[in-house]
Amino acid sequence: MISFPVNRHRIWQLLADALLIAAAWRLTFFLRFDQTIPPYYRHLLSWRVFVAVVAIKLSVFVLFGFYNRWWRYVSTRDMWGAARGVVAASLLTDLVLYAFPPSDTSRLPRLIAVLDLLLLLAFVAGSRLLARSLIERPQTGLVARGKEVLIVGAGDAAQLLIREMQRNRHLAYTPIGLVDDDPHKKNMRLHGIRVLGTTDDLTHILRDNKPDEVLIAMPSAPGEVRRKIVEATRAEGVTVKTLPGLGELISGDLNLAGQIRPVQVEDVLGREQVEVDLGATAAYIRNRTVLVTGAGGSIGSELCRQLARLGAARLVLVEQGESALYELERELVDERNFAAAIPVLADCGELPKMRQVCERYRPDVVFHAAAYKHVPMLESNPLQAVTNNVLATRVMAQVSVEFDVDRFVLISTDKAANPKNLLGQSKAVCEWIVESFALREDVETRFVAVRFGNVLGSSGSVIPIFRRQIERGGPVTVTHPEMTRYFMTIPEAASLVVQAGAMGGRGQVYVLDMGKPVKILDLARQMIELSGRTEEQVPIAFVGARAGEKLHEELWNAGEAVGPTSHPKIMRAARPPIDAGWLDDELADLERLVAEGDTLGVTAKLGTMVKEPRRAGQAVLEDTLH
């Protein structure tokens, strides 16, 4: 049954198309017979035939979804759909007139059928293009409105931005030129805006055109390119803004112009964007119940956003911070329309509570992101480091096995490689726990750990600290001139974690490719520069390394072999397996020391465990890789 739309603008579209169908049918006969229509064909112009032709074709148009689209937003895809609809409507009309001719004297001429199809196709396509052109026509005679902007990048993002700026007068932006590194695009026009040159010509272009702002419209551009643009604009005293990177852009709203923001240090770190095809690897997520611990944290909350987008049936959000849990639930339900978000206010280290949660919701996949991660804080609180990191991981692994969880993914850290502090030591033991459960013959759950470095913008990142120090006027405190760290964006890290979970070996430790380490001193200088100040205005002070801090972080333990995976940015660490019996005994001792409140005993025990682990035999690394 055909359901005709009743929306007012769609009714006008229906009427307009009815007139176009009738006009095309009538004009076809005049073109074919030069105004002298033979008597034996005049019955094809009777009102009954007109009504039949219009009714059949409009019905087909409705079935093809012609009136589910605004003409003002018609796209190339819409035009191809319209062409298919016109062809189908014309063929059906011709078949009806051939099968049930309105007169016995003659049938519909084939040339008339062909001309009618071509004319109607031209009318339908032309009407929609005309409507869009009239709505989006540039208003001549107007002076530039708002800020004049020079757009760097002449790709898809740029054309969408220009079109929105030209259509929406309230944005207060006037594009005056484009810059693109493809030399073949020079002097070409995009929506009437000319490509003036490449980024190598940017300084001269800025001096010749004197824009109010420069806008970087290259979501996939590497940090080095962005830094080059920022340096050129800063030298000329021009404000520079950007569209966010691909991961941030995908997770944001659909209004591209609304995502323009100032350039941040994350944009210029020089790290290339990693492309992750989650749709092809997220089958283990789709239509499943997924439990995320530490759901309110930086990684946990981004995992929840991506899992909701990937089609999880429901998300069980385990978080002991009330405010963070409330904000995440409201975001998922209200902003992302994911109603199947179940907030659980609890400590994931409480075994009875986690048993109750798993018994009620029966999760298929567990992402264990809950952890304390501030190095100096954990150095001052060893009992909490062991309780929240080590013992809670054992609890989650235990309940995952008890309730037949299909996959368990542990979020680890680069500090677990050759650990020198309590955070790294506790996370190294967490990796062993995952490994020991995975290698048990009676366990079906697939356990993996994912190890990576700092994530930009997280609560534990140095970037928020530097921002606050710059806002106060300094000094910006750097521990050592040569200190380096690995950095990765939060969406990118979460995407790769989901990807690693799809690989799901038996106790494998996957290590994300973090790119080149970043010098903290360079990071501080870039942030000061991006704030529009100088080092004279915001000084840098060297304060020395804090307790537990390493000068350079590592991604691999001594003795670990590096193996490839199906993803070029995810490596596999191969090593002899831990002795499960020894680990159980050591964990029992740790738990007893925590219960007794023996801080020194906990610190000593953890250090000894990591320094002198007992392995289950001496497995050959090459065999482990296979």
List keywords for this structure.
9-stranded mixed sheet; 22 strands; disordered N terminus; Rossmann fold; 15% strand; 21 helices; alpha/beta
Textual characterization of the structure:
By secondary structure, this protein is an alpha/beta fold. The protein folds into 3 domains: 129 residues, no CATH class; 122 residues, Rossmann fold (3-Layer(aba) Sandwich), CATH 3.40.50; 260 residues, Rossmann fold. Helix content is 46%, strand content 15%. It is built from 21 helices and 22 strands. Helix 14 runs parallel beside helix 15, helix 15 packs across helix 20 and helix 16 crosses helix 18. The longest helix is centred in the first third of the chain and has 27 residues. The N terminus is likely disordered.
SSE map:
Layout: H1 8-33, H2 47-63, H3 76-99, H4 110-136, E1 147-152, H5 156-167, E2 173-179, E3 189-190, E4 193-197, H6 202-209, E5 213-216, H7 223-235, E6 239-242, H8 246-251, E7 261-262, H9 278-281, E8 289-293, H10 298-309, E9 314-319, H11 322-335, E10 341-345, H12 351-361, E11 365-368, H13 375-380, H14 382-402, E12 407-411, H15 422-438, E13 446-451, E14 454-456, H16 462-471, E15 476-478, E16 484-485, E17 487-489, H17 490-503, E18 508-512, E19 518-519, H18 520-530, E20 540-542, E21 561-564, E22 570-574, H19 580-596, H20 599-611, H21 621-625
Parallel strand pairs: 1-2, 1-5, 2-4, 5-6, 8-9, 8-11, 9-10, 11-12, 12-13, 13-18, 14-17, 15-20
Antiparallel strand pairs: 3-4, 6-7, 16-19, 18-22, 21-22
Helix pairs in contact: 1-2, 1-4, 2-3, 3-4, 10-17, 12-14, 14-15, 14-19, 15-20, 16-18, 19-20
